[in-house]
Design brief:
The protein is an alpha+beta fold. Helix content is about 20%, strand content about 35%.
Length: about 200
Amino acid sequence: MNQTPQAQSPLNQIDLSGLADNSQLQIREAPFQAYVVLRGKPGNASFTSAAAQVLGNELPVKANTWVASNKADILWYGPSEWLLVVKESELNDLLEDLNTQLKNTHAGVVDVTGGNTMLEISGPATTELLAKASPFDFHPSVFTREQCAQTVFAKASATVYPLNVEGEAVAGFRVIFRRSFADYLGVWLLDAAEEYVQD
């Protein structure tokens, strides 16, 4: 009997359930997000206005910042490059809209969904855990809610940005990384988080 193939997340073999509701640290996979790299010149008004029309917000042009819209999280990735994080169910419509609006401008739109995945990390011990993984300072007094960072992460590489915001403070983080690092980072995080797990 033929069976319909079921999508599996990159971390499907890593059991994070013990950290889902921990009081000090919560780590959850956020699978089946979609990721799009957008390239263009920020000084090109036709490019930036067309992108803003599709995305519902201006592209961030300050290094290591991000903005949210009703279509995507928009992360600065370089002087002429942005990473868009969108719901997988909305990916095809977004790609179509971007390609249509940008067809007469010098721009690039690349779907990189298959190569990435995401974890969400929150709780009082979050910055302490991140300090084990990255030389970047994620303390809320330094890392503000509009910032994002591309950084070494447990000898791999990752993009980190705020998960949610309570007032002026960052309450958690999203960590995007290559799916080929999923097993390694999953095991590393379980080990690094062990001291925060309450029996």
